[in-house]
Amino acid sequence: MCICGPSAAGKTTLAARLSEQLRARGRHPLLIACDDYYRCGWSPSSRYGFDTVDAIDADQLRLQLSAVRYRQLNALRSYDMRSRRVSSRLLQQPYDLVLVEGSYGPQHLLKAVPISLVVYVETPLLQRLIKRLWRDVRDRQRPASYVIRQMLREMLPGERRFIHPLKRRADLVVRGYNFDLEPILSRIG
After folding, report:
1. What is the four-CA torsion angle of 21, 4, 55, 145, rounded to 10 degrees?
2. Strand ranges, E, within 66-130
């Protein structure tokens, strides 16, 4: 299953809540964040910065998803947004469902990997801008002026080019931060 949508729309929150509900129903979801596949040492695009599909190591993402599918992977890639360093985390949990979540990354997967359900998260722009500003300043220690400039010059053009087309490919569109999980859960079974 894939959860996609623009920056700060609530994809990670939705994936966490969905995982919680699935575990309560006896399922064992494995959550994979496309943010963990940002390229290490990559020079940002002059037009989109890091808000582009090219910033994602698509080969590594597809390779690890394939290995996960066949239960041949011991560790998942991890990317630290603060330091922009790559590491890995052990994959020790049993799973019967894979949830892939991200803004950039799903574009590489929709044709290459079997995905049974695509959910697009749509949240009003002003809410997303405030959430991203708060998150990037607080969690990633980035100056507010940098975040605002980056959102206007890179994030919004990147979303129009790479993320908004994903909505047409979605099986379900969910809105806002107060998600109704039932339509998703009923599709998963």
Report:
1. -90
2. 75-80, 85-90, 97-102, 118-122
Q: Contact at 8 Å (CB) between 127 and 12? A: no
CA angle 159/163/166 to nearest 5° reads: 155
Strand order, beta sheet including 2-4: 29-33, 97-102, 2-4, 118-122, 172-175
Quote the tokens at residue 64. 């690890």
CB 65 within 8 A of CB 72: no
How many C-beta atoms lie closer than 10 Å to residue 129's C-beta? 18
Domains of the chain are: 2-182 (3.40.50.300)
Q: What is the pLDDT of residues 51-100, one digit of tens each?
A: 999 999 999 999 999 999 999 999 999 999 888 899 999 998 899 999 99
* Cβ 109 vs Cβ 115: under 8 Å: yes
* Tokens found for residue 70: 């066949």
**Tokens coding 116:** 């049974």
User: Which of left, alpha, beta for 71 (phi over 0: left; psi -120 to 50: alpha)?
Assistant: left
